[in-house]
Specification:
Blueprint (H helix, E strand, L loop, with lengths): L5 E7 L1 H98 L4 H19 L7 H15 L9 H14 L4 H4 L1 H17 L5 H99 L3 H20 L2 H45 L3 E8 L2 E7 L5 E8 L5 E8 L16 H15 L4 E3 L3 E2 L13 H4 L11
Length: 496
């Protein structure tokens, strides 16, 4: 190819500009519809996620309520069991003491020294106490009170007055000592020993000649027995109080242990609930990022493909990088990064679609201009030898019957104005190295000007003045922007 490239800017005719304005309005409306559809889909997916999250929270709440109810029931059951054990233990002790009282009552009945009416009342009280023990009801001093009443009744019937048989008196005293209860020796060991010693001294003085000494010791022995019974009763009452305090302390310790266990369980449950809440929030965030990506991913991938087709690989790479910025964190489970990235992708997509619409308008304009150029060239006797798109440029090849070739590039300058660039080879008025001061390309210029006139007659495009490097009284450089973006003749050769 020889000669300098020839340039011509192309002005868009008013009618074509109106068509482009209408196309822009249609494109803007289509973009709005797409965004509205995406917004609806995002809202629908968000509503589904919210419903699922609410269902999960309700299930979690029900499960937590079930666990609390189980814990409360378990605690109540433990408290009931503990109270039952305490009642059973107390009932066993009360039953043993009541058995001793029953034996005393049997002895009193066997002695015949007590009125039958009083015995019947005592039997009735004993039976009532036994019923309360069987029901594990608590008894305070009722058993010891009954024991005291029996002992007093037996004491009233004892032969303790002057002239009474010494052996009968001794038997009565021994019965009183036994009636105080088998635990009395341990509860009041000194009093029990004093009673035993006094009864022994009475036994030693019993018989003829010892009446005075016997009577003197008898009063002391009776007083000792009374004091021993009172002391034993006080000790028994104190032991009962100690036992009750021990049971209460045990109950409190058990309660404290249960409360500590419940606090630990509640803390563990709270920590588990917090972990579950965080895990649920993380899962919800991942689900949101996946849903939002699902809304725009197909459109973004289509936009990247279209950007390459329309000659903007940088835009295609931006879109693909934005998509990968979401899919990578999603694969890694990084919810926060995925949400940030999908937001950026959602913001990029409308911008990219606007850019693609402009690229599509420019592409349509190039194709329409190419069709007008082809028709005009054919009208001047050119043969069309083929064409191809090279990014944002459209390269067409034409040949004259003389064999001269015209390779025409349709491009756009930095301001969006269409530009025609001709590379001519084989015309006699195109010199290999034209003199910068000489006018060349005269016949070629006339031919191309006729082509431009034919283009202008189509009411779509109006080519401007044809110029080239070295043209006298014309522009010495290509149109604005094309000196940087369009190759020179040695760099371009169309291959159709």
């Amino acid at each position: 190819m020889s000669g300098s490239p020839k340039y011509s800017t192309v002005r868009v005719a008013p009618a074509y500009a109106r068509q482009e304005a209408e196309r822009r309005r249609a494109q803007a409306a289509a973009r709005r519809r797409r965004e509205e559809q995406r917004a609806r889909e995002r809202a629908e997916r968000a509503a589904r996620r919210a419903a699922e999250a609410a269902a999960r929270r309700e299930r979690a709440r029900a499960e937590a309520e079930r666990r609390r109810a189980e814990l409360a029931e378990r605690r109540a059951a433990e408290q009931r069991a503990h109270a039952a054990r305490l009642r059973q233990d107390q009932a066993g002790a009360d039953a043993r003491r009541l058995a001793d009282v029953r034996n005393l009552l049997g002895e009193a009945m066997a002695s015949g020294s007590t009125a039958s009416g009083e015995l019947a009342a005592l039997e009735q009280q004993l039976a009532a106490l036994q019923g309360r023990i069987d029901r594990a009801e608590p008894l305070d001093g009722e058993i010891e009170e009954l024991r005291g009443r029996i002992v007093l009744l037996r004491h009233r019937g004892e032969p303790t007055g002057p002239g009474a048989d010494h052996h009968a008196v001794l038997a009565a005293l021994e019965a009183r000592l036994a009636g105080i209860g088998p635990e009395a020796a341990a509860q009041d060991p000194e009093g029990h020993r004093a009673c035993v010693d006094l009864i022994g001294e009475l036994r030693a003085t019993a018989g003829p000649g010892g009446e005075t000494r016997f009577e003197a010791l008898l009063g002391t022995a009776e007083h000792a027995l009374t004091r021993h019974a009172a002391t034993a009763e006080r000790q028994a009452a104190e032991e009962r109080r100690r036992a009750e305090r021990a049971r209460e302390a045990q109950r409190q310790a058990e309660e404290a242990r249960r409360e500590a266990e419940e606090r630990a369980a509640a803390q563990a449950a709270a920590e588990e609930a917090e972990r579950e809440r965080l895990a649920a929030a993380h899962a919800e965030a991942l689900a949101e990022a996946r849903d939002r990506l699902g809304v725009v991913r197909r459109s973004a991938e289509d936009a990247a493909d279209e950007a390459r087709t329309l000659g903007d690989p940088d835009l295609a790479r931006r879109i693909e990088t934005a998509v990968h910025a979401v899919t990578g964190p999603l694969a890694d489970g990084a919810a926060a990064d995925a949400l940030t990235a999908v937001t950026a992708l959602e913001e990029l997509l409308p911008e990219a679609e606007l850019r693609l619409d402009e690229l599509q308008l420019a592409h349509t304009r190039r194709m329409d201009l190419a069709q007008a150029l082809q028709d005009a060239m054919l009208g001047e006797g050119f043969a069309f030898t083929g064409g191809q798109e090279q990014g944002a440029r459209l390269v067409l090849g034409f040949e004259r019957p003389s064999g001269a070739t015209y390779e025409t590039t349709i491009a756009t300058d930095g301001g969006g104005t269409p530009v025609l660039v001709y590379h001519v080879d084989g015309e006699p008025d195109v010199t290999l190295r034209p003199d910068p001061d000489a006018a060349v390309c005269d016949s070629t210029e006339q031919l191309l000007e006729r082509v431009h006139e034919a283009i202008g007659e189509r009411d779509g495009f109006v080519p401007g003045e044809l110029t080239w490097d070295g043209k006298p009284h014309g522009r010495s450089r290509p149109p604005r922007g094309e000196g940087r973006s369009l190759p020179d003749a040695g760099e371009w050769r169309w291959s159709g």
